[in-house]
Structure formats: structure tokens, C-alpha cells
Amino acid sequence: MKQKISRRRIWIILSLCAAAAFCPSAAGAPRQAATKIEAPEAALLDALSNIYEGVRFDHELHASYASCAECHHHVAGLPSADTACNSCHRLGTSASVLDCKSCHRNDRFSQQSLSEKKNQTGYHIDIIGLLGAYHLNCLGCHLSLTAGPTGCLDCHRRKGPGPSTPARVAGQEERRAR
Amino acid sequence: MRAKISRRTLLKGLVAAMASTISMAPSRKSSAHDFQGYETNRGVLVDVSRCVGCRSCEVACSREHGLAPPPGLVDNYRLLDQQQQGMRRTDQNAFTVVNRHESPLLTHPLFKKTQCNHCLEPACLTACFVNAYTKTPEGAVIYDADVCVGCRTCMVACPFSIPAFKYDSAFAPQIMKCNFCFDTRLSRGRPPACVEACPMEALTFGYRNDLLRVARKRIRDTPGRYEKAVYGEFEAGGTSWLYISPVPFEQAGFDIHVPRQPILNYVKDFLAVVPMVLTIWPGLFAGIYLLARANKTHKNTNDHEDVSDETSER
Ligand code: SF4
Ligand code: SF4
Questions:
Q1: What pTM, to 2 d.p., does this model score?
Q2: Structural domains in chain B, sorted by start
Q3: What is the interface pTM, i.e. ipTM, of the complex?
Q4: Cβ-based burial of B192 (10 A; exposed 0-12, middle 13-18, buried ≥19)
Q5: Which of A111, A131, A169 shows the shortest C-beta gap to B201?
């Protein structure tokens, strides 16, 4: 629970930082239509910062190649293009939620999420976690378009020399398990 | 003369009794053929289409169980293509291995993780005559080295060729295999180390019954992405680890000839005879031996030459 709060806080701080840092440039860009929600120009994904450099995700760059809905399922205020979502969520408020982590949880293995998963009866019995959502989305696109980095260390640059990857990855795994 | 007749009758009787026991045994109907597993049976759903062969799961496993780090581990999973030579099997240093498979239907390779499938009715457990194996209500098939006599029957019995033998310790027999991280994690309701390490979420932990629904949902919701079957739902009588694959299972390195019935059903009839062999046979053969001896002594009293022969032989 403690971890969850701290991570959430980190996220908030990060996004505020990003917003603060890139606000002037974003405001100056003429293609930012008034109806659009302010999108962060970049995000720093640094949950593995004890082993790897944070991954800087260039949001603006990706927004220039792909439509928002290709990654976000839907854009703010508009219902999803996916008819499967629309049958329930057309009139709901979930269309206004855009950030990945509000649906794709990063505490998949907490006692709470594990017990919630038991005997679910609703439609969403298989929502992927944040870790998987990132990797599947990024790698899926990069592999199918044969563009962009696809190797582990292409994105996760190691922090200086040290023990070989196995020990380091496993160290991370242990840290998370605690 | 009288004694001879009674011996013959006795033998006849014994043979008839034995024959009837043997003929009775196979006709007994198996009562557990539709066992669906414990309600509390956990499992892992492996989505072969998601795995990228990074082998983080192997690393996490070797750390969890204090084994040697996996050999040839590379930083970039793409390099696995060139590095990997042939199919690896689980062994005493690796409870799980990831192998690369090529399918003619895909332009990219597939990766399949192999480990103990924690069968609902495990063949290894059935085969073990000292009961070194236990199927826990959580679904794990665990092994007790203290009981094991090192006969390695379980290695032969397992339809997935999972148990390995620790050959380097001749006096402390030990079978090495995945235990679903039972002691350290599963018994406390936590997922095994490999599942937590997988960055692609190719491994999903949960109750087996829930996972079957998840697997079917994935197959239904993304038409064309998966083969319309869940490997492990019926194989070997059902396994805790379940798999969905984008190509026919044999192309992704699965053994599709594993029987759908639990292996137990094939050996049950044979095993039913074992107690008979252990209880009736000693008496039977001891009886035959004693009768044969009695016959001999009876003869000996009539024929003194035989006695001198026998004593000279001794
Ligand atoms: S996969 Fe093999 S070792 Fe594992 S439970 Fe089944 S029979 Fe036993
Ligand atoms: S950690 Fe996941 S993606 Fe990596 S090899 Fe294992 S199952 Fe595949």
C-alpha cells in the first residue's frame, strides 16, 4: 500500500514536472487545437531506476506518427472507436480518462489485486497490468513496423558497469516482491 | 499318494484364486476419471504470442531457488536467435527453460517457456511408490527429498519429461523440478517468481478456473490471433499451467501426443495388481517352495542315494 502511494506520488510529481517544463513550448505550438487536452511532450519511465536509466518516452514524437487512439484506445471526450467498448462506455465518464495507469494497474501482485481477480463476473476479467501494457504496446508496434528500438537494452540503458544482467534483473525482481 | 493329491488341489486352488484376482482388477471402473482439480488450484496462463524470449523468468527462477544463473544469457533478447542451439530441457540447474521455435505460419520466431505443469492428477506422484510427491490444494506438485529413494520412476512417468536428477550427489538422491515456488510464495497466495519477472505479462497467475475463462476470452475477443484451444485444459488429465498459442501447438514446441486422460488411468489397473503381488505372491511361492521341499524330503526318505548326493554337493 505504501509503495502504491509513493509510486502514485512519483507519477503525479513527474507529470507536473513535465507539464511545467514543457508548458511554454506546448502553448507556443500552433497545432495544439483548443479542444485538445494538453498532452505531455515526454514522460520519464523510471520505475527501474536502481538498475537502468529512466526511459524517456517522447510523447510528442509518437503523436506525430500515430493517432492518439492507436495507443490510448480513445481520445478524450470521444467514445472509443472499438465497438466492444462502446456498448457499455458510450455514455459513461470513462472516455475522459486517458492515462494508462488509471486502468492498467501497476500493483498486479498486491493482495488486493490478487483477491479482486478471483471469480470476477464482469466483462473485464483480463485487464493487463501497466508493465505489460507498455511492453506489449511499444514492442508490438516497433516489431510490426520494424521501426524503433526492440532490444531490452535499447530502451533500458544500464546504469554504469556492475554485475551481469541476470543478477541485476533478479535483484529488481526481489525488490518488487518485498 | 494322498499327500500328492492334496498338494495338487491346493495348487489348483491357489492358481484359480490368483487368476480371478487378476481378471477382476482391470474390470474395476475408475472413479476419478472426471476429476476437475481442486477449487483452490492456482495456475498460470502462458500466452505464447506475448513471449519475446527475454528469459527474465529463467533468471528469476534461478535466483529464487539458489540455482546457477542460466547459461548464455544475453542482454538483448534478439541475440537469443543466434545463441540458442537446439532445444533445452529442464535440468538440475534450470527448473524452467525458454526455447525458440519457428513456425511456417509466422515470419518471426516464437518462444515457449517449459517447466513442470503441475498436473491435476500428476503421473510423477502416481509413479512414486514411497509417496515423495504431494499435490497441494493450491495446485503445486511438490517433492520431499527426505523420502525419495532415488529410483527415478517419476522421471520416466512424467509425460512432459520434467523431473531431473541431481547426479552429482550419489548418496543424497534428489529430484530437481519446479515446485511452483510453493514454500516461498504460493503457500502465501503469491505468484511464482517467473510470473512476477515477466515484462510482457506473458504469464498470468490466478485460479485455474478463472484462467480458463481468461484464456477463452482472449481467444474469443481477438479472432485469428490464437488457436482455438487451451493446451493443458485436458492434456494429461488437465494441468495447472495452461497455454494459448498463435499457431498449432505442435509448431510451438508442444507435445500434442500427450494423452488426454490422466496417466493414472493407464497404470491404475496395473497398480491394482501390485498389492496382490506383494501380499499373495510371497505366500504362494513360499507355499510352492515348502511343498517342493516336502516332496524332496519325502523322496529322500525313500531314496538314500539322493541324500548322499546332496550332502556331497554341499
Ligand atoms: S508435469 Fe510431470 S513433474 Fe510436473 S506434475 Fe505433471 S507429471 Fe509431475
Ligand atoms: S520473462 Fe516472459 S517474455 Fe521473457 S522469456 Fe519469460 S515468459 Fe517470455
A1: 0.74
A2: 123-174 (3.30.70.20)
A3: 0.70
A4: buried
A5: A131
